[in-house]
Amino acid sequence: MSSSRRRRPWTLRTKLIAQLVVVVAGVCLVIGVVTVLSLRSFVLQQLDTQLVDASHRAQAYVEGGGSGERGPHPGPDHRPPPVGAPGTGPGTVTARIVDDVVYDAKQLTLQAAEQQDLTPEATAVLTTVPVDGQGHSKDLPGLGEYRLMAVPTRLGVVVTGLPMVLAESLQTNLSWVLSAVALTGLVAAAGTGILIVRRTLRPLNRVAATASRVAELPLDRGEVALSVRVPESDTDPRTEVGRVGAALNRMLGHIGNALRARHDSETRVRQFVADASHELRTPLAAIRGYAELAKRSPEPVPPDVAHAIGRVESESARMTTLVDDLLLLARLDSGRPLERREVDLSRLVTDVVGDARIAGPAHHWQLDLPPDPVTVAGDDQRLHQVLANLLTNARTHTPAGTTVTTALRVDGEDAVLSVVDDGPGIPPELQPSVFERFARGDSSRSRAAGSTGLGLAIVAAVVAAHDGVVSVSSEPGHTSFEVRLRRFGALS
Ligand SMILES: Nc1ncnc2c1ncn2[C@@H]1O[C@H](COP(=O)(O)OP(=O)(O)OP(=O)(O)O)[C@@H](O)[C@H]1O
Ligand SMILES: [Mg+2]
Questions:
Q1: Ligand nearest to the CA of 440
Q2: Domain harbouring 258, CATH code
Q3: 391, 456, 472: which to mutate for ligand 1, most atoms within 8 A of CB?
């Protein structure tokens, strides 16, 4: 199942409240059912007591011969209907059964307390009551639920019944009242639960907020001031949330120390590289000077010595470039701000491509400039170096006859500088790391050109220091470097 279709997980708060509501609902249900059932059994007991009385009355009345009129269905012995017994309550049902024949099946009506014959269906039900002197609940068609009791007498079986309407309505009413109370209780429990849970979880939210603030900090480079901490009040180890808060603070402390150590060591290395490069410049200048002096000596020198002096000169020149590059990178790494002056990129491109034409006459150098000058805010010399490095690469890493097109265009707020050549391209395995330090192709051309692999690293560092972006795409026959810089005066 895909993650988008998966059900959203419940929050801790929703889970706690749902569990609380389920528990309260369960308790209410049990209380309600037990109350209704016990009330029902109590009311039935009462009714049965009344039923015994009523049954005795009817029995005595029948056996005693009665005093009232005869009913419309006099029994075989002309006894009066038992419903006429004095003290019979409204709603009472009575009948006498002799040899499976029902006589005097009557009801004393609820409203007028008059004797009324039962319907044949209701009468039929009376015959099904077991003759055991016990109360039995039965439904009399047209009259509702009745509690019926049949007792044997000398003059047949006398059946007496009392309406259960009171017990029924009591049970129904109580059920309604209990449901209403339970529902109110549930709503109140849920409301209180929400308040309590929200209050209880507030410290946890604060701890989570601290963790998110840390997650938003850029921790990957530079000096990181990891001063964010969980508030003191949420770090009491005697509480669960406090333990989480304290653990988070301890972890942040460790991470802060580790980051500080990393930054210190980076700074030391950078400082060492900068110092070493700086210190190396003077002896290198001296070596170059002495080599120059030796070359100018009027005395004849053997050819192998002359060759050695030439090598010393060229290698020291190469080392000087390397040392200068290292020093520049160390300075850029330390975040020292660059100059921010208006630089005319159009003029700079014209100059650098002019230099490249002189340095690489075997290549075809093309220029594509917009009619209006394009200016950016930055460091003239460093930007010069960026373009010079790109053009040097296009010259040294491609065969003679390659066409190199340097173009400048305006794209909204940006000035876009591109250097495109139709040479063999950058080896695919080198492409992902081409802007890293000392990354270079090991073709014989590169080695012969005395490359060090710092040229593009400097390009990337200088462009980044100008808040710009450099990108490369390369395939055989088409290698393109693109540098995107903010135009002068554009809002940053
Ligand atoms: N235009 C290009 N065509 C083909 N390969 C290139 C091109 N530009 C760069 N490369 C490859 O990328 C590598 C890295 O270039 P980078 O300029 O960083 O170092 P380098 O030119 O080797 O040495 P350095 O510039 O320090 O003298 C090069 O060694 C080369 O293999
Ligand atoms: Mg280079």
A1: 1
A2: 1.10.287
A3: 456
